[in-house]
Amino acid sequence: MEQAILGGGCFWCLEAAFSRLQGVTKVVSGYCGGDTDQPDYRQVCSGATGHVEVVEVHYDPARIDYATLLQVFFAIHDPTTLNRQGHDVGTQYASAIFFKDERQRLVAEQTIAQLEREQVFDAPIVTRLESAPRFYPAEEYHQDYYNQHQEQNYCQLVISPKLAKIRHKFAHLLQQGE
């Protein structure tokens, strides 16, 4: 098993998307990239800790590779807005890839360069690319949030459309029944 740490706005969105992919065995919402030990949600949301809301994606590289995870990552968030995803604004909502090793760094750099060459986005990609510091799991009530709260407005208005996009663009990657 390997792990990828990715930040693309609210971790609930990322967790819901990545947990539906074949080869992904676990997705943990959490915080990465800041200066405070054991940060909590309130502290991270204040913007004072420097942490980004992220997901730690545990995956089987024999079933899904890191490059494919990055393709999905760039399809479900806007990597051209600095510290913002839609109405979520603040450093905690940065687009970020926290690479675990040199191979992940190279794949991330190549993916970003390819997206820029192909002009997939109307503006430059501002995704942070940094070596992975310590990952802190978020509080339990953030874990598996979408699956437990699908009826909430945020889930219906923000997360469900992202999942529809995944189903349309990456149907071949989804677990059976998704």
Task: Detail the topology: elements first, then pairings.
Blueprint: E1 2-8, H1 11-18, E2 24-32, H2 41-46, E3 52-59, H3 66-75, E4 84-85, E5 88-89, E6 95-99, H4 102-117, E7 128-131, E8 135-137, H5 145-148, H6 153-169
Parallel strand pairs: 6-7
Antiparallel strand pairs: 1-3, 1-6, 2-3, 2-8, 4-5
Helix pairs in contact: 1-6, 3-4
- Helix % is 25-40%
> Which architecture name does CATH use?
2-Layer Sandwich
Which geometry do the CA atoms define?
A: globular
Q: Mean of residue pLDDT? A: 95
- The name of the CATH topology is Peptide Methionine Sulfoxide Reductase, Chain A
Total strands? 8
Could you characterize what this model shows?
- The protein has helices spanning 11-18, 41-46, 66-75, 102-117, 145-148, 153-169; strands at residues 2-8, 24-32, 52-59, 84-85, 88-89, 95-99, 128-131, 135-137.
- The radius of gyration is 15 Å and the shape is globular.
- The protein is built from 6 helices and 8 strands.
- A hairpin with a 2-residue loop joins strand 4 (84-85) and strand 5 (88-89).
- The strands form 2 sheets. Strands 7-6-1-3-2-8 form a 6-stranded mixed beta sheet, with helices on one face.
- The longest helix is centred in the C-terminal third of the chain and has 17 residues, at 153-169.
- The protein is an alpha+beta fold and 178 residues long.
- The chain has one domain (2-173): Peptide Methionine Sulfoxide Reductase, Chain A.
Task: Give a short summary of the structure.
The protein is built from 6 helices and 8 strands, in the order βαβαβαβββαββαα. The chain has helices at about 10-20, 40-45, 65-75, 100-115, 145-150, 155-170, and strands at about 1-10, 25-30, 50-60, 85, 90, 95-100, 130, 135.
